[in-house]
Amino acid sequence: MPLMNTKAMFDKAYDGGYAIGAFNVNNMEIVQGITEAAGELKAPVILQVSKGARAYANSKYLIHMVKAAVENFPELPIALHLDHGDSFELCKNCIDDGFTSVMIDASSKPYEENVELTKKVVEYAHKYDVTVEAELGTLAGIEDEVQVEHGKEAYTRPEEVEDFVKKTGCDSLAIAIGTSHGAYKFTPAQCTRDPKTGVLVPPPLRFDVLEECIKRLPGFPIVLHGSSSVPQEFVKMVNDYGGKMPDAVGIPEEQLRKAAKLAVCKINIDSDIRLALTGTIRKYFHDHPEHFDPRQYLKPARQAVKEIVAHKIKNVLGADGHADETIKVYNEKYKK
Ligand SMILES: [Zn+2]
Residue 166 Cα, ligand 1 centroid: separation in angstroms? Predict the structure, then answer.
């Protein structure tokens, strides 16, 4: 199975009431942990590369690692996606390099500029059968080079979505309904505090905005960014073994499950993988101060990535067991 674009994945996810996990990849252990989980669970998966990941690892390494994963799991539908492309040139580079899906994020620009740039990327991408994700609305938080201060975020305006999709021809749309980038998704002032645990309780997602977008775009795949849940057991692990992450908090998993059952076909998860990896390595260093072979601590870290991804696929996204039907639709409808 070669890399595929997201069309067959989203067709099945939309009808089946589940979402495809889009996990950010930065190094070999992360690629391996994610694809081992997806492979075992027969779950279609999107591996996504941000501008920051390209700068860190060099795009070529990441592309070849993803291709190695494709060889290793020949029965698994995998898409290679650019996360938060911020220019036509970056999207074009990735398309030319063999990415099967790109995001053009011009959401911080005025509406008409967003339309214009997205349309330009769509026209180029579709020539090469590459799918395009666009964004309307702005998320708060920090993700690599995307930074929006708390208070400057803006919910998607449902009255714009139909016009935007019609004018741009994009294949999926990321919307802002209260998710947020990074491990500090909300300020304490935005939250209440659980009196028992002291953990912040974030404001609920705006399902009314989502429902309104779905009504205006029936059948159209919606994407949620910034959808890590920041599991408190990993925050605790980080903090217990020398780290300092006070008040790190994420999106409750049951809200993401609810979104996945609706028109949300792609859910982006990055911070949870980082947390699992870092917590595990911190604990390993504490427990084995004499070890210095990177393989010793990266092996359990990779296992932690695999476990958290498996948990997401099964219990949050509901994408397990959907690989074969995705390949069938791809072969029948979209294979070129
Ligand atoms: Zn994002």
Answer: 23
The pLDDT of 258-270, averaged and rounded, is 97
Give residue 272 CA to ligand 1 midpoint distance, Å. 13
CATH topology of domain 7-229+246-270+306-334: TIM Barrel (3.20.20)
* Backbone phi, psi, residue 155, to 5°: -65, 150
Distance 39 CA to ligand 1 centre (A): 24
For 20-38, how does the pLDDT look when each residue is reduced to its tens digit (9 = 90+)? 999 999 999 999 999 999 9
Q: What is the model's pTM?
A: 0.96
DSSP string, 280-308: HHHHHHHH-TT---HHHHHHHHHHHHHHH
Distance, CA of 312 to CA of 209 (rounded, Å) = 24
Tell me the two tokens of residue 4. Answer: 């595929």
Let me know: does 64 contact 123? Beta carbons within 8 Å. no
Q: What is the mean pLDDT of the chain?
A: 95
- pLDDT at position 144 is 66
Q: Active-site residue among 83, 105, 270, 320?
A: 83
Place of tokens 């390494």: 61
Which residues make Cβ contacts (< 8 Å) with residue 87, sequence separation at least 6? none
Residue extents of the structural domains in the chain? 7-229+246-270+306-334
Residue with tokens 């792609």: 266
Kindly report, residue by residue over 166-193, the tens digit of the pLDDT.
Answer: 999 999 999 999 999 999 988 888 899 9
What is the share, in percent, of the chain residues with pLDDT greater than 90? 87
DSSP 6: S
226 CA to centre of ligand 1 in angstroms: 5
88 pLDDT higher than 70: yes
Q: If we measure between CA atoms, which residue out of 74, 65, 76, 7 comes closest to residue 324?
A: 76
- Which H or E run includes 254? helix 253-261
Spacing, Cα 268 to ligand 1 middle (Å): 7
Alpha-carbon dihedral 306, 311, 314, 317, rounded to 10 degrees: -100
Do 229 and 311 meet the contact criterion of CB atoms below 8 Å apart?
A: no
Give distance in angstroms: CA of 123 to centre of ligand 1: 23
Asked if 83 is an active-site residue, the reply is: yes
